[in-house]
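=== RUN LOG ===
request id: a7f3
mode: sequence -> structure
chains: 1
length: 239
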Amino acid sequence: PEQIAQDLAQLAKISDCVRTYSIENGLDQVPALAAKAGLKVMQGIWLGSNRLKNATQISTAVRLSKEYPGVITSLVVGNEVLLRGEMTTTDLANLIRSVKAQVTVPVTYADVWEYWLRYREIYEVVDFITIHILPYWEDMPIRAKFAATHVNLIRQRIAVAFPGKEILIGETGWPSQGRMREGALPSRTNQARVVSEILQIARQENFRVNLIEAYDQPWKRQLEGTVGGFWGLFNSERR
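=== RESULT ===
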C-alpha cells in the first residue's frame, strides 16, 4: 500500500483520474488510497475464461463502487477479452448487464477500436464506449507526426458508427524506447510530441483520453519485443 500511495501521490500532480484493470495483486486498495490523494478511479474488472475468477473480480469491484461512490467514477467490465478470444459476446453482454444492475456508476467495456466495429452488440449494453487506439502498434504502424491525427480520425469514425454515446479513448500513447516498426520510431522526443498533440486535440474537441501507462512494465519487453519503456508517461483522464 505504501508503494501504491507513493505512485498515486506522483500522479495526482499531473492527473485527475487513474484507470485500473483488475482488483488482484493489491489493486483493490487503489480506491481508498486514491481518495486520500484526491484522485478519481476508473475501476477495472479483469475478465477471462475462468468463471470463478470473473465472479470474484465482479463482486469485489461492485463492493468497492459502493464503498467509494465519490472516488470510483465508472466500472470497466472487461479489457480486450474479445480480442484475446476468452469470452463470447453473449457472455460478455450478460456480465455487463449483471454489473449494471448492481451499481449506480456508468459501466463500459474496453477493447481495441476494430473489435467494437466487429462486435457491435456490446454497444447496446454499455453506458459509454472505451476504445484503444495505439498508433505505434497498428497493423500498419503510424508515424509519430501523424499519430495524433490518426487517433482523432478513428475516434470520429467510431462516433459515427455508434451515435449517442460518449467515446472514451481508454488507451493511447507512444513508446519512449523499443524497436522501430516500419516508420514508427520509439523515442522520448516522439513520445512527447504524440502525447502533447493528442491532448491538444482532446481539449479542442472536448473528449476524454487515458494515456497508458503510468509506469513502464518490464514484463512486457519480451512479450512485445521492446527494450526499455513500453507506453510510458502517465495515466490520465480529462474531466
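=== NOTES ===
The first strand starts at residue 17 and ends at 19.
Strands lie at 17-19, 40-45, 72-79, 107-112, 129-132, 167-172, 209-211.
=== END ===
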